[in-house]
Design a protein that fits this description.
With about 325 residues, the protein is an all-alpha fold. It contains 16 helices and no strands. The chain is flat. The N and C termini lie far apart (about 55 Å).
Length: about 325
């Protein structure tokens, strides 16, 4: 018996009857020889962690564009916080930690530069629309490894695709990540907003603090404990109605006071203009795209789709660099921009 088979046997013996077992995966689009050490979801986790798209997340905006300070979240640190929340919940519920971690690490791979501002612009410009969850799946299926993709399991791709609140993952592990994503960004965005002096703890409604906690640590503790206690021995992942309603209200508070705040979002107009102009420029000068994107055109992909793929893969700084290269006189370009 291989080490992988021993681990799969341990899963059968120790995980919850509601867990997604590695040995029961629906598999990959392209069949592969199994690893002798790692079960399939652990293998997927490793592929995502070593991908170029994952490394680029460190230079993509979470909420605050080009913040002045080293401690603001990026898309990468957000992803790691989602993963940690999700693993804590999965471990307590005896669900599959490897599957949870793979989904969490991959859920935002398709996010654009400049956060949701970039996503909004590409969705407006592309006839087929643009949604980052779908782009994350496209990244792992089509764009990584020079067009070969990562060939991930069905369960991981399903969790990545359905991590948004309006969608429903097929596994409990995917449902954990969907909750963990929301828990992470609400709480770390409060922390960043306080750091940016956009709000203070005193601005958060008192009733919400009484229900969820008076600090970020207390709120995380409340939300994660509540999910665990309301999901034990159940074929579902759920919160109590009171806590879930409070989290929804806190999210609404964040939209009104941070996500739409002119201080937090003051640079978004410029970021959106850059993305829009880059899109039109590449549509008119398609030959400037790297070879792998041009090959996609030869394979029948629509030009708009390929241009969106290229722009979505950019980091904030790379988008600024290309905009400067195409639209600013050389004498105006400073600091390597």
């Amino acid at each position: 018996m291989s080490i992988r088979e021993e681990i799969e046997q341990m899963e059968r013996e120790n995980l919850s009857p509601y867990a997604t077992l590695s040995a029961n995966s629906k598999g990959r689009d392209i069949p592969e020889e199994p690893c002798d050490i790692r079960p399939v979801f652990q293998r997927d986790r490793d592929r995502i962690l070593h991908s170029k798209a994952f490394r680029r997340l460190k230079n993509k905006t979470q909420v605050f564009l080009t913040p002045k300070g080293d401690h603001y979240r990026t898309r990468l640190s957000h992803t790691l916080e989602v993963s940690q929340n999700a693993r804590t919940i999965a471990k307590a519920l005896r669900l599959n930690e490897d599957l949870v971690e793979a989904i969490a690490l991959g859920h935002d791979l398709g996010h654009t530069p400049f956060g949701h501002a970039g996503e909004f612009v590409l969705n407006e410009l592309c006839e087929e629309g643009f949604r980052h969850n779908e782009q994350s799946v496209r990244t792992v299926e089509k764009l990584e490894k020079n067009g070969q993709g990562l060939n991930l399991t069905w369960e991981v791709r399903d969790g990545i695709l359905n991590h948004q609140s309006s969608l429903t993952p097929s596994t409990l592990e995917g449902k954990i990540v969907r909750f963990s994503d929301k828990i992470a960004y609400i709480n770390h965005d409060i922390d960043d907003a306080i750091r940016a002096q956009v709000l203070t703890e005193d601005d958060i409604p008192l009733e919400l603090k009484k229900t969820l906690g008076f600090t970020t640590k207390q709120r995380l503790n409340t939300l994660i404990h509540n999910i665990i206690m309301n999901s034990r021995e159940r074929d579902d992942i759920a919160m109590s109605p009171e806590i879930e309603e409070a989290m929804i209200e806190l999210r609404k508070f964040m939209f009104e006071n941070v996500y739409k705040n002119p201080v937090a979002k003051g640079e978004e107009v410029k970021a959106k203009a850059m993305i829009e102009q880059l899109f039109h420029y590449y549509m008119e000068h398609i030959e400037l795209l790297p070879g792998k994107y041009l090959r996609m055109l030869d394979e029948g992909e629509k030009q708009q789709r390929v241009v969106c793929d290229y722009i979505a893969g950019m980091t904030d700084q790379y988008a600024i660099t290309k905009f400067s290269e195409y639209f600013l006189p050389q004498a105006w370009q400073v600091d390597g921009y």
